[in-house]
């Protein structure tokens, strides 16, 4: 009788199957748990914000209108038709014509293109400056004090009077060197950009200070990762959320500031339409033709409101505490 006690499994222990391929045994098993992209989760959360969806739809409509409008509506915004002056809404002029006979729809499209261009460009400049100063102040301890005092100095300045002084001092020089339209565009963009970066810098600095103490940053520093690679690889990707929210709010702030300068008569030339300039020109005819104030005023208000709603939706969608509910 053959003894098979040595072949029997020991109680309490299970036999471990031997993989046919040693490389397969060394590799971890890829088990699908239905994981999704983070951006899909962000989009799902963003869709639940009805105001953000409506704002994004309206802002896309504005972008398409100011981009494709000149190709669909053939009227020149500077063309003067004396016979059509002060006409109301008609098939030839869906938004009427102004006191010189210029088509209001064409001027609204051209003005929107200028206002949105100023808002996006000034926002990009403000985000660049704010992110640069915020990252440097948060990551390098020696630069934190001087840069934050520099930020506090700009926060203490009266921004609108400062912009007015900049326009009065440099508009003639820039207009002579770059032309009236390009010179004023550069002046307004730089003026808004260099006076709007401070909130972004403070928000980014706070996030960088928190990220410096995270485990993955400490681990990267322990293996000798240089500062430049640490910032570009580990710090910047993790502060994109506040930067994106600041971007939406920066567009709205830049559009309002440009409209205020144009309304005060210190923006673009009279023959170069912007929404603020159209609003300024229409104030003399407020009682006779109130719709001329309504069109640019409604465009400014709805565009700024839509951008603010987009910022609210992005803030909620990029917050992992809300997204994980």
TrEMBL record:
PROSITE patterns: ABC_TM1. Residues 1-16 have a biased composition (Basic and acidic residues). Its main location: membrane. Keywords: Cell membrane, Membrane, Transmembrane, Transmembrane helix, Transport. One of its GO terms (biological process) is transmembrane transport. GO terms for cellular component: plasma membrane. The keyword Transmembrane helix applies. The chain crosses the membrane at residues 52-74, 116-140, 152-170, 182-204, 235-256, 293-311. Residues 1-30 are annotated as: Disordered. It comes from the Bacteria. Residues 112-311 form the ABC transmembrane type-1 domain. It is found in: Cell membrane. InterPro entries: BP-dependent_transpt_permease (IPR050366), MetI-like (IPR000515), MetI-like_sf (IPR035906), OppC_N (IPR025966). The keyword Transferase does not apply. It is a multi-pass membrane protein. Residues 17-30 have a biased composition (Low complexity). Belongs to the binding-protein-dependent transport system permease family. PANTHER family: ABC TRANSPORTER (PTHR43386:SF23), OLIGOPEPTIDE TRANSPORT SYSTEM PERMEASE PROTEIN APPC (PTHR43386). This is Peptide/nickel transport system permease protein. It comes from Palleronia aestuarii.
């Amino acid at each position: 009788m053959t003894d098979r006690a040595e072949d029997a499994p020991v109680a309490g222990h299970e036999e471990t199957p031997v993989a046919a391929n040693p490389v397969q045994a060394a590799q971890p098993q890829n088990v699908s748990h239905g994981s999704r992209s983070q951006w899909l989760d962000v989009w799902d959360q963003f869709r639940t914000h009805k105001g953000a969806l409506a704002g994004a739809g309206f802002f896309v409509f504005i972008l398409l209108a100011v981009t494709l409008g000149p190709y669909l509506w053939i009227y020149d915004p500077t063309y003067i038709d004396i016979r059509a002056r002060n006409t109301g809404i008609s098939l030839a002029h869906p938004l009427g014509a102004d006191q010189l006979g210029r088509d209001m729809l064409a001027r609204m499209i051209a003005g929107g293109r200028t206002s949105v261009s100023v808002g996006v460009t000034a926002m990009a400049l403000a985000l660049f400056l704010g992110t640069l100063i915020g990252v440097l102040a948060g990551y390098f301890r020696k630069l934190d004090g001087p840069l934050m005092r520099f930020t506090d100095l700009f926060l203490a300045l009266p921004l609108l009077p400062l912009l007015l002084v900049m326009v009065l001092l440099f508009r003639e020089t820039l207009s002579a060197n770059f032309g009236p339209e390009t010179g004023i565009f550069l002046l307004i963009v730089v003026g808004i950009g260099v006076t709007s970066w401070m909130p972004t810098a403070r928000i980014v600095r706070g996030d960088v200070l928190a990220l410096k103490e995270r485990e993955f940053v400490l681990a990267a520093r322990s293996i000798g990762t240089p500062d430049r690679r640490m910032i570009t690889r580990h710090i910047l990707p993790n502060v994109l959320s506040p930067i994106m929210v600041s971007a939406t709010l920066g567009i709205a702030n830049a559009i309002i500031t440009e409209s205020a300068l144009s309304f005060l008569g210190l923006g673009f030339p009279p023959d170069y339409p912007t929404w603020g300039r159209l609003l300024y020109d229409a104030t003399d005819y407020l009682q006779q033709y109130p719709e001329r104030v309504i069109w640019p005023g409604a465009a400014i208000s709805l565009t700024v409101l839509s951008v603010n709603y987009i910022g609210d939706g992005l803030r909620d969608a990029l917050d992992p505490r809300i997204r994980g509910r």
